[in-house]
Design brief:
Radius of gyration: 18 Å
Largest sheet: 8 strands, parallel
CATH topology: TIM Barrel
Oligomer: single chain
CATH superfamily: Aldolase class I
Distance between the termini: 34 Å
Helix content: 40-55%
Number of domains: 1
């Protein structure tokens, strides 16, 4: 049986950390890593959507992961998302991630061209082959990738013994149940949509990976704790509060991740820069709404965490 305990819990999706010129800032990467360790999360998911991976070079992504691993010092489970929209660079990132000692690599399917499932399977297996000693996580996010992880494709991927988990960001929580049932006792399924963490855990998810976890980890850690204790109504109240905060962060002109970074600066004194274009930075008119979000987080943390 695989060691799945290291994947059970709250795993924030790591944010891109930039300097004033919009370049990767290794020092800020390490600050964010240590902040998350202090908060008590299980691990980090590096180089995914929250990490702005599709707007970064291979060198950018290698640099970020190197600094995460340096600061983590073995205190976090580290999953490195390595997918690029071509196999060669994905394999390069996979091999690099394994060389650093990550716990797992992950990949979305190739985007833009709608490839047949046998091509997607070959893409994922080629990436996995480049990191032969490392667990592989399938990232299922059909609403953005344009490709869904079907059961036939999942069964094909399960033939690869390194396939250890699915990060399931599809909206139906039923998908979590299906992947858990098909995957077996030692197979891991992560809940993806932050807004339905309680639902995902109740139906069988082993943990959660989320883009808003890093800005209010206290709330998600409490949701996980209460849900595992069977205190669903209490967990539901926190979920509702977290969802209202998410809706509030999405109500700004700036991209949600730009808003999150501004909130981290206000609440935690943690400056990790802004976002990379074409994502939109925070506008001056956003500040009133951002301050409201800060207040909502503070009140929720005080009330529930």
């Amino acid at each position: 049986m695989k060691n799945i305990e290291k994947y059970r819990g709250i795993i924030p999706a790591f944010y891109a950390c930039y300097d004033e010129n919009g370049e990767i800032d290794g020092g800020r990467v390490e600050l964010l890593t240590r902040y998350l360790i202090k908060k008590g999360v299980k691990g980090v998911y590096v180089g995914g959507s929250s990490g702005e991976c599709i707007y970064q070079t291979v060198a950018d992504r290698k640099c970020t992961l190197q600094h995460v691993m340096r600061a983590a010092e073995g205190k976090l489970t580290v999953i490195a998302h390595v997918a690029c929209n071509n196999t060669a660079e994905s394999q390069e990132l996979a091999a690099h991630a394994q060389s650093l000692g990550v716990d797992a690599i992950a990949a979305i399917p190739p985007i833009y061209f709608h490839l047949p499932e046998y091509s997607i399977a070959e893409y994922w297996n080629d990436i996995s082959d480049a990191a032969p000693d490392t667990d592989f996580v399938i990232y299922n996010i059909p609403q953005l990738a344009g490709v869904a992880l079907t059961m036939p494709l999942f069964r094909e991927m399960k033939k690869n013994p390194r396939v250890a988990a699915v990060k399931n960001s599809s909206m139906p929580t039923q998908d979590i149940q299906m992947f858990k049932a098909e995957g077996g006792e030692d197979f891991v399924v992560f809940n993806g949509p932050d807004e339905q963490l309680v639902s995902g855990l109740v139906i069988g998810a082993d943990g959660g990976i989320g883009g808003t976890y890093g800005v209010m980890p206290e709330l998600y850690l409490k949701i996980y704790e209460l849900t595992k204790e069977g205190k669903i109504e209490e967990a539901q109240k926190i979920q509702y509060a977290a969802n209202e905060i998410i809706y509030g962060m999405c109500a700004c002109h700036g991209n949600m991740y730009a808003v999150i970074k501004e909130i981290l600066k206000i609440r935690e004194g943690l400056d990790i820069g802004s976002v990379r274009k074409p994502l939109t930075a925070v506008a001056p008119e956003d500040m009133e709404q951002i301050k409201k979000c800060v207040e909502w987080i503070d009140k929720a943390v005080e009330a529930f965490a």
